[in-house]
Write a structure and sequence with these properties.
Helix 1 packs across helix 2 and helix 5 crosses helix 6. This protein is 51% helix and 11% strand. By secondary structure, the chain is mostly helical. It contains seven helices and four strands. Strand 3 and strand 4 form a beta hairpin. The longest helix is centred in the middle third of the chain and has 28 residues.
């Protein structure tokens, strides 16, 4: 059904959202400052223009700088994508954690068990796909769960990462079931 909401209610919801996520917003501003500090061209005037909506459009879109993602990997970003830097940092950190999960946490377990495996897609839409012999698939699914527990210990985050290993012959069968 349609939801009726006034403009004033939208403004209040928006303000509440950023009130709850104030630290995230501040982190985004810090990343913007980090980007300006690493920009490779003479950017003093452009940095000032960035705060002025009327002059912002005059800033060359190819000015480049970088920021560090949550695991410390530098990420090059041009000015045209600077507005998305917080999202890029969060996404790249998640992807790096996923790759670390497969390489640092799962690989030793597979080797310990003597399981021959091939990484098909290490990182695609928050999922990893590997190929193993059919008679080892159930054990590998158990090892994925064990590796996830190891990863949570390695990264030590407050929010525990999780996932459901699935077994299939093709990508359609491997899609995680909807809740």
């Amino acid at each position: 059904d349609n939801v009726e909401i006034s403009y004033e209610e939208v403004k209040e919801l928006h303000a509440t959202y950023w009130g709850l996520f104030d630290r995230l917003k501040k982190y985004g501003y810090e990343l913007g400052d980090q980007w300006w500090d690493t920009a490779y061209q003479d950017t003093a005037k452009y940095r000032e223009w960035d705060r002025d909506w009327n002059r912002r459009k005059l800033i060359p879109q190819n000015i480049g700088g970088y920021v560090l993602n949550g695991l410390g990997r530098p990420m090059c970003v041009t000015y045209g994508y600077k507005k998305d830097v917080l999202s890029r940092v969060l996404q790249s950190t998640g992807h790096d954690i996923l790759v670390k999960y497969v390489v640092k946490c799962l690989e030793p377990l597979l080797e310990r068990e003597g399981i021959e495996w091939y990484p098909l897609i290490v990182d695609l839409h928050d999922a990893s796909t590997i190929e193993v012999r059919e008679d080892q698939a159930e054990r590998v699914a158990e090892l994925f769960t064990e590796a996830m527990a190891d990863l949570n210990r390695v990264i030590g985050g407050r929010i525990r990462l999780g996932g459901t290993p699935t077994i299939g012959i093709n990508m359609t069968e491997c899609k995680e079931p909807e809740s």
